[in-house]
Amino acid sequence: MSKFIFVTGGIVSGIGKGITVASLGLLLKSRGLKVIPVKIDPYLNQDAGTMNPFQHGEVFVTDDGAETDLDLGHYERFIDQNLTQASNFTTGAVYQTVTAQERVGEFLGNTIQIIPHVTDEIKKRIKNASKGVDVVLVEIGGTVGDIEALPFIEAIRQLKQEINPSDFLCIHVVKIDYVYPSDEAKTKPIQQSVQMLRGLGLQPDFLICRCKRPITQEHRNKISLFTSVRQERIIQAIDAGSLYQIPINLEKEKLGTQICQFFGWKNKKVNLSQWQKIIGKIENPKATIRVAMVGKYLHHPDAYLSVVEALKHAAIQNLAKIEIIPVDSEKNNLQAVLKKIDAIVVPGGFGIRGIEGKITAIKYARENKIPFLGLCLGLQCAVIEFGRDVCRLKGANSTEFNPKTKYPIIDYLPEQRHIAKKGGTMRLGQYPAKLKPGSLAARLYFPSLSHVSRLQSIFERHRHRYEVNPKYHQILQKNGLIFSGISPNNFVFSRFARNKKLVEIIELPQKIHPYFIATQAHPEFKSRPNRAHPLFDGLIKTALK
Ligand code: GLN
Q: Could you confirm whether domain 285-544 is CATH 3.90.700.10?
């Protein structure tokens, strides 16, 4: 039987529940346990796909094409495990299932209610996720007290009655409050948040307390007395310099050991040596590097989360300290800003705003031989720039930005034109690409293979509607753009573009430019702190030279 760990948040949002769950997953996996994390999002969207990065941060994509909350990115990076759509569901998805069942007559005669129909569906999803694993780690989005989260908390309360109580553990993530202006630490919000959780029928077994300073014994006594959580299960999480330090800190605070004791697991030895190595590299950089990230969603700190993390991974791998300079593609001072940097990344995005700035930045990178990496929209902008400035197709554009352009160099495929719905209809999830032997891409992805045998396939995750228009393949190539990754013919699991060769990776010859490469995919989703993605690694390596 699997163990169930539920993680709720108290007081305010944004205190690091996602990182806590990711860290806990790592601590358990490092003890040889098989874990699966699940994130529950209490909003009515069916998935994160239609949500604006300005509001919610990036949309993360899994191999199987789920558009998910960004916490899944933390889980994948920390636990080093590819997740599926089973690891994220929303209120919207739960209601959709229940109401669809009602329409086909599954509950015939009954009144459909939140209890038991909605809560049953929630429990079913959690139990399904737990199959074949030692621990299922469930994070409930939002904060206890939100109306939206009530059915989920209720489902968890019920689930406790259905399973062996010793397989059930509840963690509440809270923060010490520091009053203004004395900066005195206060525990009252923690006490009240636990009271609220208790009012809903859940008593936390552990508290994880975010804090600026170590929690005093006096405060620990008080928290324990008011919340009935044992002292040794009150885990302090002091602000850390790097995200990747957090699992090590929580391990020092004995979170993993205490959880094993709770479940009666003896002699589970922990091995965090790989992770220690990462921290060692972060703490001992040999060089500093400045990378410009040219985008428009710069006001939300997490809008480009996976790109930022992938850049950090590459810096860690190359023993460099990285400074990521967010560059607003809607401002006019681009060239001045770009003068002082070592590499340029143009990440993904939607809509016309900021496009011309991205194209200007790419032109600057191409002409000044600045290492450049384009991601999804970044590839599309690089193709537009090349079309306009090298192929002399004046006004070339994507039909996303100018439906009437004379040269629709980026466009829908004919088979996509009938698609009217916005949700879940992009080219999503993992797709293969064949790499061109001898290309920069082939050398980056397969550094150990000999020159001739580099005709290899790769898989990367996608999330886009538009493609390089096949009508322009020839002219682009004739003018010197290399298509170093092409989708293979007849890949069976694609509903798009069967029998069509789509451009997956472009590059400039290395004679002309030291590092100019862009991909239609989102390689940032597959980068890991201990295994930087080859395209990011190549960017940082070249920039360091
Ligand atoms: N807007 C572009 C498209 O839909 C690129 C999307 C992206 O960068 N993820 O094709």
A: no
Mean pLDDT of 336-365: 94
Does the 3-277 domain belong in CATH 3.40.50.300?
yes
- Residue identified by tokens 């040596």 is 273
Note the pLDDT tens digit of each residue in 179-205.
999 999 999 999 999 999 999 999 999
- Ligand 1 site, residue 149, Cβ cutoff 6 A: no
Q: Where in the chain is the domain with CATH 3.40.50.880?
A: 285-544
pLDDT digits (tens, 9 = 90+) for 122-142: 999 999 999 999 999 999 999
pLDDT at 257 over 50: yes
Encoded tokens for 254: 């004995």
Q: Which one-letter amino acid corresponds to residue 226? A: F
CA of 154 from ligand 1 middle (Å) equals 39
Indicate which residue of 260, 376, 381, 391 is catalytic: 376
Kindly report which listed range (45-54, 299-308, 371-380) carries the lowest average pLDDT score.
45-54
Average pLDDT of span 485-513: 78
Task: Give residue for tokens 């098989």.
Answer: 34
Q: Give the ranges where 231-333 is alpha helix by DSSP (H).
A: 246-252, 255-263, 273-283, 305-317
102 burial level (CB within 10 Å; 0-12, 13-18, 19+): middle
CB 91 within 8 A of CB 42: yes
The continuous run of DSSP H or E covering 519 comes out as strand 516-519
Phi/psi of residue 285, nearest 5 degrees: -70, 150
Determine the average pLDDT of the residues in 84-112.
Answer: 94
Determine if ligand 1 sits within 6 Å of the CB of residue 348.
Answer: yes
Whether the CA torsion 105, 107, 112, 113 is positive or negative: it is negative
| Beta bridge mates, 393 | none
In the chain, which segments carry CATH 3.40.50.300?
3-277
367 by DSSP, 3-state: which? helix
For residue 37 and ligand 1, the question of a CB distance below 6 A is answered with no
- Of residues 30 and 492, more confidence is placed in 30
